[in-house]
Design a protein that fits this description.
Layout: H1 10-28, E1 38-44, E2 49-55, E3 61-63, E4 69-71, E5 90-93, E6 99-103, H2 105-108, H3 120-129, H4 133-147, E7 159-163
Antiparallel strand pairs: 1-2, 2-5, 3-4, 3-6, 6-7
Helix pairs in contact: 3-4
Length: 165
Amino acid sequence: DKNNGPNIIPKEAIITAVRKTNNYIAINHDQANMFATVFLVLLEQEKDEVWYINCGHDAPVIIRSDGRKERLMPTNPAIGMFPDIQLECKSICLQSGDSLFAFTDGVSDARSSSEDQFGEERILEILSKQISLKNRLDSLVKTLLQHTSGVDQYDDITCIAFNRS
């Protein structure tokens, strides 16, 4: 409810959160050469607007209701390497029937017993074939589990998705 709290400007909120996280890592963990990729998204429901920042993360996919796909390419480098970096935040329109699908590099980099990577091409192919987002995710999980059968997982495998209703 707009009357029950401060008027938050999404772009500023996202940049502030990522800037503080970047500076914390860069200042407190500079000797560890630590960094992180970040994808952060905020949906303004009343405006059908999605604000996002992508700091070196695998490019999430927007699947439009007509099947077209768009990638949310990195807007910034990974965070934590340098304090006080300039950050760019972008917005896109997400209309009814559109979906957003994000994944970590552990999905695309997942290896089979013969050392073949799962790959982004396979992810995009699966996302193109299915009608519902649930079916897309179910198919991706099934195919990924078959691909990595018998192999120890060496990285996180995380996906998150939502439909705009």
